Amino acid sequence: MCASVKYGSRGPALIPRMKTKYRIYYITLFSVVLLGLIATGIYYITLFSVVLLGLIATGMFQFWPHSIESSAEWSLDRRSVHDAPLVRIPMSSPIPERGDLSCRMHTCFDVYRCGYNPKNKIKVYIYPLQRFVDEVGVPISSTGLSREYNDLLSAISDSDFYTDDVSRACLFIPSIDVLNQNSLRIRETAQALAMLPRWDKGMNHLLFNMLPGGPPDYNTALDVPRDRALLAGGGFSTWTYRQGYDVSIPVYSPLSVEVDLPERQPGPRRYFILSSQTAIHREYRVELERLKEENGEALLLLDKCSNLSQGLASVRKRCYKGQVYDYPQILQESSFCVVLRGARLGQATLSDVLQAGCVPVIMADSYILPFSEVLDWKRASVVIPEEKLPEMYTILKSIPHRQVEEMQRQKWTSVNSPLFLPLIPPRSPGFTAVVLTYDRIESLFRVITEISKVPSLAKLLVVWNNQNKSPPEESLWPKVAVPLKVLRTKENKLSNRFFPFDEIETEAVLAIDDDIIMLTSDELQFGYEVWREFPDRLVGYPGRLHLWDHEMGKWKYESEWTNEVSMVLTGAAFYHKYFNYLYTYKMPGDIKNWVDAHMNCEDIAMNFLVANITGKAPIKVTPRKKFKCPECTAIDGLSLDQTHMVERSECINKFASVFATMPLKVVEHRADPVLYKDDFPEKLKSFPNIGSL
C-alpha cells in the first residue's frame, strides 16, 4: 500500500485520512492509554482537565466508538511515503536490552520531562517518518507503515496532546510501526529504535503493539528488545505485564468499525451462548460441540464458511451446517459470546463482541484484559478459567437475569467514569454511607439513626472491623428505610473503610466514623449537594492544613484554626467510589501498609491520592472546625494518644516522599448554604440546621 505524507503544524499525517469512524478508534485508544498511564502514576501534575477533554471528545467510556462520518479533505499537497528520508542501519549498531521486567514509573520513567505544561496537558512528540533499511537496503519491516498505525499517529498529532517541540515532550512515540510483530525483523527494528535521537535507553518512549510474539511460542509481549520503553500491548499475560508501567490495549478489529450495529435493549436473546471464532484449538472445538449436543438451540456454534470463495465477503460470514450468518451482526442475537484464547492471548473477537453488545465470556488464563487498570471488567464480562469450559453453560445459567441485563447495558451506556462525571450527577441515586466500626455499639446505632434522616441516603454499609466479636443480632439494629448491610472484615485495618465493596452501587460515598453523632441531617444533605457539583473532589467538614516547618526542614500537620485548608477529615466526607479502587489497588509505594501498621493517617493518604489524581484541593463545607477535637482532648479513643500529632506529621512527610511531590493544594474558602447567615425566616432556608463550630 502506497501512503502519502503531509508535514504540517500538527505533525506528520502520513497517509490520506480514512473515514472518521476508523480514526475515532485510535483517538479513543490513545486517550485511554494516557488515562491508564495517569492512573498508574506517570504524571504528578494537574491532569484532570486534560483527560476530561479527551474523554468528552472521544466518548472513551463507551466500550467502543460508533461511526461518525467526516468530509474533511487534505489541505496540503500529498507526498509519497517513499519521500521520507532513508536511514541505513550499520550491522554493528547497538541493540537495546531485551526489556526490563522490573521497570516501574519511579525507576524507569523521568517525570521531570513532564514539568513543562502551561496548559496542564501531557505533551507527546512523534518522531518524523524515516525509512530504515539494513546495510544492503532491505527494509526492517515487510509491510512498512500500516494504515492502522498511521491512523493512530494521525489521531495523536491532531489531538491537544501533540507537540512538535521535542524539548517540551513528556512522551516520545516512534514512527516505527511495531503493531504486528509478524512483519518485523526483530534485530534490525531494535537497532532502529536505538538510533532515535532521544532514545536514552527507551526512557519516556511509548510503543504500540497489538500482535506480539511469533511461531512457535507466541510470546505475550513484543519480542523486539526495547530497553525501558513503555509498551501498550494487545496480548499481555501476567508473566510479561509490568503492572503500573505497561498498558494493556485491545486488539483492533476492522469488522467492528466498518459495520454499524443498532443499539439493543437489555434482555433475552435468541441464543444463550454463541461461539464465532474460526481458528480455535481442536480440544476447545470438541468441547464446544459437546456442549452444543447437550444444550441444543441455546448454543450456536459457528465456524468459517467452507462453501464461500475466499475474500472480504467470506470474512464477514460465519456458518453452521451450511447455514450462513452475517458477522459481526449475528453476535447481537446472543446473550453471551465466547472469547477463547488462540495462538495469542489477545483476540480481535473481543472487540467485535463488545461492539455488538454481547456479554463476553473470556477464557484465556493469565490474560491481562484491556485497560484493566481503569476499567472494571466484572461489570461487563464473565471470566472463566480454561479448565472450566465443560462447565460454562452451568456457570452462565447461574447468573441472575438482572445481572445479565446490567452487563448488556454497560455496552450502550457510558460506564460511569470514576472521575469524569457530568457537571452535576443525577439526583436520584443518592449516596452510600460506609460506617467503620469496631465495638462502639451504642454510638454506632446513634450514627445510623442520624444518617437515616438524610433524604439522599440510598444505602447503609457497616464495616465491622472486629474479628473477635460478632455484630449484634439483626433484631437489635435500628430500623431504617434504606437497605442496611453489615460487612465483616478479615483483619482490623483502617484501610478497610476504603475498600471498593461490590455493595456500593451509587457513585457517591459518605465515609463516616461510628462516633460522628454531631452532624445534622441538613449538614450531611448539604455536603452531598456540594459533592454533586464537584464529583471529583473530597467534600468534608473539619479542615486541616499542611505547613512547611523551616526550622525542621520538613512538613508539619496543622489542626489549629487557620485561614487555609488543604485536607478534610474522612471521619465524615463525601467522595466518588472510584477512589476506593485507587486507594486499595493503586496507592503508590507502601503507603497503605504504613497506614494499617500505624493505625493512623488513612484520611491523609486519601487526601494525597485524590489531590494527586485531580490536581485539586478538597472542599470544606459548613463552619464546623472539629468533630470533638480528637487531637486535643484526653478521653478514650484512637486519636487521643499524645504522639498522634507527631505521627500525622510523619505521615505527611512519608507520603510526600513516596509520591515524590507534595500534591496537596491549599485553598482559603469553604462552601456554605446561600442563606446560611442571612436574617431570614428559618422555615424559608433549604438547610436551616447547619450546626455549630
TrEMBL record:
<keyword id="KW-0325">Glycoprotein</keyword>
<comment type="pathway">
    <text>Protein modification; protein glycosylation.</text>
</comment>
<dbReference type="GO" id="GO:0015012">
    <property type="term" value="P:heparan sulfate proteoglycan biosynthetic process"/>
</dbReference>
<dbReference type="GO" id="GO:0050508">
    <property type="term" value="F:glucuronosyl-N-acetylglucosaminyl-proteoglycan 4-alpha-N-acetylglucosaminyltransferase activity"/>
</dbReference>
<dbReference type="Pfam" id="PF09258">
    <property type="entry name" value="Glyco_transf_64"/>
</dbReference>
<dbReference type="GO" id="GO:0005794">
    <property type="term" value="C:Golgi apparatus"/>
</dbReference>
<comment type="subunit">
    <text>Part of the heparan sulfate polymerase, a dimeric complex composed of EXT1 and EXT2. Could also form homooligomeric complexes. Interacts with NDST1. Interacts with GALNT5.</text>
</comment>
<dbReference type="InterPro" id="IPR004263">
    <property type="entry name" value="Exostosin"/>
</dbReference>
<dbReference type="GO" id="GO:0015020">
    <property type="term" value="F:glucuronosyltransferase activity"/>
</dbReference>
<feature type="domain" description="Glycosyl transferase 64">
    <location>
        <begin position="431"/>
        <end position="676"/>
    </location>
</feature>
<dbReference type="Pfam" id="PF03016">
    <property type="entry name" value="Exostosin_GT47"/>
</dbReference>
<keyword id="KW-0333">Golgi apparatus</keyword>
<feature type="transmembrane region" description="Helical">
    <location>
        <begin position="24"/>
        <end position="57"/>
    </location>
</feature>
<keyword id="KW-0464">Manganese</keyword>
<feature type="coiled-coil region">
    <location>
        <begin position="274"/>
        <end position="301"/>
    </location>
</feature>
<dbReference type="InterPro" id="IPR029044">
    <property type="entry name" value="Nucleotide-diphossugar_trans"/>
</dbReference>
<keyword id="KW-1015">Disulfide bond</keyword>
<dbReference type="InterPro" id="IPR015338">
    <property type="entry name" value="GT64_dom"/>
</dbReference>
<keyword id="KW-1133">Transmembrane helix</keyword>
<keyword id="KW-0479">Metal-binding</keyword>
<comment type="similarity">
    <text>Belongs to the glycosyltransferase 47 family.</text>
</comment>
<comment type="function">
    <text>Glycosyltransferase forming with EXT1 the heterodimeric heparan sulfate polymerase which catalyzes the elongation of the heparan sulfate glycan backbone. Glycan backbone extension consists in the alternating transfer of (1-&gt;4)-beta-D-GlcA and (1-&gt;4)-alpha-D-GlcNAc residues from their respective UDP-sugar donors.</text>
</comment>
<dbReference type="GO" id="GO:0005789">
    <property type="term" value="C:endoplasmic reticulum membrane"/>
</dbReference>
<dbReference type="GO" id="GO:0046872">
    <property type="term" value="F:metal ion binding"/>
</dbReference>
<keyword id="KW-0175">Coiled coil</keyword>
<dbReference type="InterPro" id="IPR040911">
    <property type="entry name" value="Exostosin_GT47"/>
</dbReference>
<keyword id="KW-0256">Endoplasmic reticulum</keyword>
<keyword id="KW-0328">Glycosyltransferase</keyword>
<keyword id="KW-0472">Membrane</keyword>
<keyword id="KW-0735">Signal-anchor</keyword>
<protein>
    <recommendedName>
        <fullName>Exostosin-2</fullName>
        <ecNumber>2.4.1.224</ecNumber>
    </recommendedName>
</protein>
<feature type="domain" description="Exostosin GT47">
    <location>
        <begin position="119"/>
        <end position="399"/>
    </location>
</feature>
<keyword id="KW-0812">Transmembrane</keyword>
<keyword id="KW-0808">Transferase</keyword>
